């Protein structure tokens, strides 16, 4: 009887988390729709041209219930909300290639390291017809005790056919982000004291002008960031930039 109760509870938990998942967004490309599925914090799943990309998988197996297995996994940094070995170990990685910075590669167990492609800031790689470029992510000012020193982690620009998607990683309002060009969709972090506040994030977004921006990674030491305030700052200054607010914390 006790075993049946445990199984039933496990099923209810998985069903509950799955039910809380928001509907995916779809963006047209010249080679079919790009599906964007927010998951949790900075975790997002992209599906395009029958290929599946996981970004910073985090949250355990329940967070991915019902989703297809990944072809690509992008990991930005060594912290456990980005490189989460417990979650990786629950996923079907049979056909997955991991794209990681060197600092993450140093922590991968051998079976995962064998699946990894290591790139540093400024380098790029192409897998499954998807181009990925590593972009700097770091804190300002640059200090020896920085939570996110320059060069340790990667932000990413991913190209799906004619659409470019930027994922910021844990960064502040750095020149390399402001200098981005032709970004169609941006995922931008904003949580203090780890990354940016909403004014810094809005200022950067208004400079590099993505077509669509998603605030994500917005849980900080004092709770959730005011993403409505971020949206107002951006859209009051440039209504051509679409700010999409989604629930990245469905189990809070």
What does this protein look like?
By secondary structure, this protein is of the alpha/beta class. It contains 7 helices and 16 strands. The strands form 3 sheets. A 7-stranded mixed β-sheet has the order 1-2-3-4-5-6-7. The longest helix is centred in the first third of the chain and has 19 residues, at 2-20. The model is unreliable at 1-19 (pLDDT under 50).
How would you spell out the order of helices and strands?
HEEEEEHEHHEEEEEHEHEEEHE
- Strands side by side in the biggest sheet: 1-2-3-4-5-6-7
What is Rg?
A: 18 Å
The coarse overall form would be globular
Mean pLDDT: 91
Number of separate strands: 16
Largest sheet: 7 strands, mixed
| N-end to C-end Cα span | 31 Å
Helix tally?
7
Spans of at least 5 consecutive residues with low confidence: 1-19
Keywords:
252 residues; alpha/beta; seven-stranded mixed sheet; 29% strand; globular; disordered N terminus
Concise structural overview:
The protein has 252 residues and is of the alpha/beta class. The protein has helices at 2-20, 85-88, 102-105, 110-113, 175-178, 198-208, 227-237; strands at 25-29, 32-40, 43-48, 51-55, 72-74, 97-100, 116-118, 124-127, 130-135, 155-160, 163-167, 185-189, 212-216, 219-220, 223-224, 242-243. Strand 3 (43-48) and strand 4 form a beta hairpin.
């Amino acid at each position: 009887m006790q075993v049946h109760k445990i199984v039933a509870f496990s099923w209810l938990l998985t069903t509950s988390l799955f039910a809380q998942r928001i509907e995916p967004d779809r963006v047209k490309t010249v080679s079919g729709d790009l599906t964007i599925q927010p998951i949790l914090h900075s975790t997002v799943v992209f599906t395009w041209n029958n290929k599946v990309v996981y970004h910073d998988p985090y949250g355990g197996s329940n967070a991915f219930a019902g989703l297809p297995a990944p072809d690509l996994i992008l990991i930005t940094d060594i912290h456990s909300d980005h490189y989460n070995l417990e979650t990786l170990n629950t996923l079907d990685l049979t056909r997955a290639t991991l794209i990681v910075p060197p600092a993450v590669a140093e922590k991968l167990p051998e079976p995962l390291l064998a699946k990894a492609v290591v790139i540093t800031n400024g380098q790029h790689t192409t897998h499954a017809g998807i181009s990925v470029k590593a972009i700097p992510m770091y804190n300002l000012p640059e200090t020896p005790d920085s939570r996110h020193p320059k060069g340790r982690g990667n932000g990413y620009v991913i190209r799906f056919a004619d659409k470019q998607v930027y994922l910021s990683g844990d960064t502040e309002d750095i020149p390399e982000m402001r200098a981005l060009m032709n970004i169609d969709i941006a995922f931008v972090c904003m949580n203090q004291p780890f990354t940016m506040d909403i004014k810094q994030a809005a200022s950067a977004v208004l400079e590099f002008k993505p077509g669509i921006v998603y605030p994500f990674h917005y849980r900080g030491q004092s709770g959730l960031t005011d993403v409505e305030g971020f949206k107002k700052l951006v859209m009051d200054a440039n209504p051509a930039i679409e700010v999409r607010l989604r629930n990245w914390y469905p189990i809070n």
